[in-house]
Specification:
Length: 66
Amino acid sequence: MTSLMVSMTAFIAGIKERFESEKGATATEYSLLVGLIALVLVAGVGFFGGELDKWFSTLGTTVGTW
């Protein structure tokens, strides 16, 4: 009976450890952070790329008229 009790205690301790572990939560937080950074980069590059295109077009027109 004692070995069964020890086995059950170890089993319950293992399950409790899995529920208290935050490894999955940390990975989820990092993936959300990476996704947010990627979204900001895409939006920033889209805006900056459009403004840079306008600037070079204006520059090309100005240089072309010289």
